[in-house]
């Protein structure tokens, strides 16, 4: 067999490959040794492991890495060496004749630590492999070319003030990109360059610790440290890196509060309002945060009940607050002894002394011009509602509290007495009634009295006067509700059809006591009677059995209700009873037509409605019945028997009278004389009555239009004197028209315009026989 004998080392750690052929022993039968012979078949005769090359080579020539050689190569140039893999050609080159490998570029182990390549030996003529392909590694050997780096720096750390020596503050960590497995290039040592003698750092671990006791935050609260990390175990020539560490001392409550001064003095106007801040003091605490929070309290002094003190949570000031009204004329100064103490105390530092301090505060009251002061801010008075105008209700009194003692003038704030029910004497303050009072309208009057100094009108004081109006019996009782009473046709005698109650706006002291009775005018009423129940109610009972709706649908019963006041007042109320058809249970089924009242319709309205219906029935009996066609004409105001002939027709009435109603004041005789000769179809007396009725109707409408502020700005009388234009129906006037017998125009289209034009269609339309309708 043949093997490769590696390698002769050069100064650059390159390797050369030398081939040596070894004879192979063959054995014969029986295990006897045979002769030495060379095998025809060759095994692989070149192998290698790896090459080494230094990083960061800065020479001008390519760096020799190693040499490839096969024992097949006889040196005759028939073997060609080929290199492939990572960095082949771009970084590493090979001499295909000699197999020498060179690095053509500068290598950096921190970017790539090794390269894997493949080597081939080929026949130059046939380009066939003369040896199997082999793989080898070129490893980049490290040098100390990277300094340590603090990837997490700069650092911020906190430690409590007055911490003991050796207290851990922070741990710093540096990294080195060099190979930690080769040499000391990545072995680091920490040291402190700045921050001594207060802090130190452990060389191997990078832990920063305190080295001095009793560091005071109030003296220095911030320290800047510079920490160094050096490789090569700190030896000379090693590379180093630095970082900064900012150490903040946190506060502990090691300082008591102290007042800068032992006494304070403030001036306070006597007009200052209660709950106002009149003074501010502040004790100084060198600590911070919760450790500097303070509470203030008044220990003693002559202002304990007049003032109190609170701590401002934002500024830690002591706020002196007024609790009572000040009066310079009564007391002109106050003295307080105030203590300030820490809210939170650290018992470790109590040995240094008490964590509190005291100071004296003197408050001087300043005199100011004060407004008048009433003897009572709220006064209550009572007056009868029957009191005549000018009755004294009561009086108020105010004075100037200042030493000047200015006279005071009284008045009523009219915003509180818009109706001017009361008046006041400007000098004496006596309040009198100025109008009649009505307790039922206003039981309590809340008026404001104003007192003004005569020497200084800007000084004004106010007080409230509550005037209660005492009740007198000045209202008569009435029905409590609007009753809708009914009685069945089959009602029996003595049956209760309604229970009445009453109300009275007055309020007697002992309560209401109503008496019910039937009015004297109801003596003829044989249908109903009234029974007083002696409990402020009364029952309405039938006096007979059987009622007939057709004969009398409504019955009216006058009820007299009197109160028990002094003097006693009474009123007559009419109860309307409707006759209804009822079932066997007494429930109404049908009531008299027109007698069923809707909800909310009063009895008086029912009586009035009944009277109107009665009068209307009488009128309808006197007037002739209208035909069905005439009922559809809704616009008729006055019905007369003459057929009008248009504006030129003066037989029915004089158009001049319509145009000049305000100027014409005709007597009955003048009206008769001014009328045209009567037509043969009517009499003079009926014509005069209808003309007068029409004139009065127009005159009444004129007056209403003149008094109506919301009426449109035109005279509605124009519609009677002039015919309008622009109508789609064209003119209906008989002016310039042919006679009814000569006209060939058809008026049948009027029937298509609806019921409003039906009368005109009947007047002007042709009958089926061809005649013209004439007459209403």
From TrEMBL:
GO terms for biological process: adherens junction organization; calcium-dependent cell-cell adhesion via plasma membrane cell adhesion molecules; cell migration; cell morphogenesis; cell-cell adhesion mediated by cadherin; cell-cell junction assembly; homophilic cell adhesion via plasma membrane adhesion molecules; morphogenesis of an epithelium. GO terms for molecular function: beta-catenin binding; cadherin binding; calcium ion binding. The keyword Cell membrane applies. Keywords: Calcium, Cell adhesion, Cell junction, Cell membrane, Glycoprotein, Membrane, Metal-binding, Repeat, Signal, Transmembrane, Transmembrane helix. It is a single-pass type I membrane protein. Residues 70-150, 151-259, 260-374, 375-479, 479-600 form the Cadherin domain. InterPro entries: Cadherin (IPR039808), Cadherin-like_dom (IPR002126), Cadherin-like_sf (IPR015919), Cadherin_CS (IPR020894), Cadherin_Y-type_LIR (IPR000233), Catenin-bd_sf (IPR027397). GO terms for cellular component: adherens junction; catenin complex. It is found in: Cell junction, Adherens junction; Cell membrane. Cadherins are calcium-dependent cell adhesion proteins. This is Cadherin 7. It comes from Stegastes partitus.
């Amino acid at each position: 067999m043949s093997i490769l004998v590696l390698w002769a080392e050069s100064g650059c750690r390159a390797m050369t490959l030398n081939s040596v052929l070894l004879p192979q022993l063959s054995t014969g039968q029986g295990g006897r040794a045979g002769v030495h012979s060379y095998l025809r078949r060759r095994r692989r005769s070149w192998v290698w492991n790896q090459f080494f090359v230094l990083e960061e080579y800065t020479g001008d020539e390519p760096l020799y890495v190693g040499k490839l050689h096969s024992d097949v190569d006889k040196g005759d140039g028939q073997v060609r060496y080929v290199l492939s893999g990572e960095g082949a050609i771009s970084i590493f080159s090979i001499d295909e004749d000699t197999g020498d490998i060179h690095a053509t570029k500068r290598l950096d182990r921190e970017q790539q630590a090794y390269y894997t390549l493949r080597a081939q030996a080929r026949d130059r003529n046939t380009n066939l492999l003369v040896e199997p392909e082999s793989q080898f590694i070129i490893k980049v050997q490290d040098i100390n070319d990277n300094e340590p780096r603090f990837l997490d720096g700069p650092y911020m750390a906190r430690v409590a003030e007055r911490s003991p020596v050796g207290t851990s503050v922070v741990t710093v960590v540096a990294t080195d990109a060099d190979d930690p497995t080769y040499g000391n290039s990545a072995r680091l040592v920490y040291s402190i360059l700045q921050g001594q003698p207060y802090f130190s750092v452990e060389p191997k671990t990078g832990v920063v610790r305190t080295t001095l006791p009793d560091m005071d935050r109030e003296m220095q609260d911030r320290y800047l440290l510079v920490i160094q990390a050096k490789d090569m175990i700190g030896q000379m020539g090693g590379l180093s890196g630095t970082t900064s560490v900012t150490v903040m001392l946190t506060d502990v409550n090691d300082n008591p509060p102290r007042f800068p001064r032992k006494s304070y003095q403030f001036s306070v106007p006597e007009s200052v309002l209660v709950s106002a801040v009149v003074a501010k003091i502040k004790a100084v605490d060198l600590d911070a945060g919760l450790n500097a929070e303070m509470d203030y309290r008044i220990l003693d002094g002559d202002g304990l009940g007049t003032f109190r003190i609170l701590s401002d949570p934002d500024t830690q000031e002591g706020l002196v607050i007024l609790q009572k009204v000040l009066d310079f004329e009564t007391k002109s100064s106050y003295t307080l002894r105030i203590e300030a103490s820490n809210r939170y105390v650290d018992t470790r530092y109590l040995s240094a002394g008490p964590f509190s301090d005291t100071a004296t505060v003197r408050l001087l009251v300043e005199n100011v011009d004060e407004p008048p002061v009433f003897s009572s801010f709220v006064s209550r008075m009572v007056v009868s509602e029957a009191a005549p105008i000018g009755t004294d209700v009561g009086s108020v009194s105010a004075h100037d509290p200042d030493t000047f003692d200015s006279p005071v003038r009284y008045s009523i704030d009219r915003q509180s007495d818009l109706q001017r029910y009361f008046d006041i004497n400007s000098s004496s303050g006596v309040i009198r009634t100025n109008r009649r009072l009505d307790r039922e309208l206003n039981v309590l009057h809340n008026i404001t009295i104003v007192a003004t100094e005569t020497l200084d009108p800007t000084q004004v004081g106010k007080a409230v006067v509550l005037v209660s109006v005492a009740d007198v019996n000045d209202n008569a009782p009435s029905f409590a509700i609007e009753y809708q009473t009914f009685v069945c046709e089959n009602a029996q005698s003595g049956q209760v059809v309604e229970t009445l109650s009453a109300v009275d706006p007055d309020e007697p002291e002992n309560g209401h006591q109503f008496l019910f009775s039937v009015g004297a005018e109801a003596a003829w009423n044989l249908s109903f009677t009234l029974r007083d129940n002696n409990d402020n109610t009364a029952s309405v009972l039938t006096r007979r059995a059987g009622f007939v709706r057709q004969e009398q649908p409504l019955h009216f019963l006058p009820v007299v209700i009197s109160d028990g006041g002094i003097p006693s007042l009474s009123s007559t109320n009419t109860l309307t009873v409707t006759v209804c058809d009822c079932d066997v249970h007494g429930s109404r089924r049908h009531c008299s037509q027109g007698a069923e009242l809707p909800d909310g319709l009063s009895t008086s309205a029912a009586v009035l409605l009944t009277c109107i219906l009665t009068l209307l029935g009488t009128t309808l009996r006197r007037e002739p019945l209208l035909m069905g066609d005439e009922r559809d004409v809704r616009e008729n105001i006055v019905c007369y028997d003459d057929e009008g002939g248009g504006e030129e027709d003066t037989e029915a009435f004089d158009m001049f009278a319509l145009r000049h109603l305000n100027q014409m004041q005709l007597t009955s005789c003048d009206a008769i004389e001014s009328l045209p000769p009567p037509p043969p179809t009517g009499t003079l007396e009926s014509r005069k009555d209808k003309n007068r009725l029409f004139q009065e109707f127009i005159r009444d409408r004129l007056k209403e239009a003149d008094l109506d502020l919301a009426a449109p700005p035109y005279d509605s009388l124009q519609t009677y004197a002039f015919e309008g234009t622009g109508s789609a129906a064209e003119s209906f006037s008989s002016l310039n028209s042919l006679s009814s017998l000569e006209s060939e125009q058809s008026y049948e289209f009027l029937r298509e315009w609806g019921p409003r034009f039906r009368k005109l269609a009947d007047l002007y339309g042709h009958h089926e026989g061809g005649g013209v309708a004439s007459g209403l």
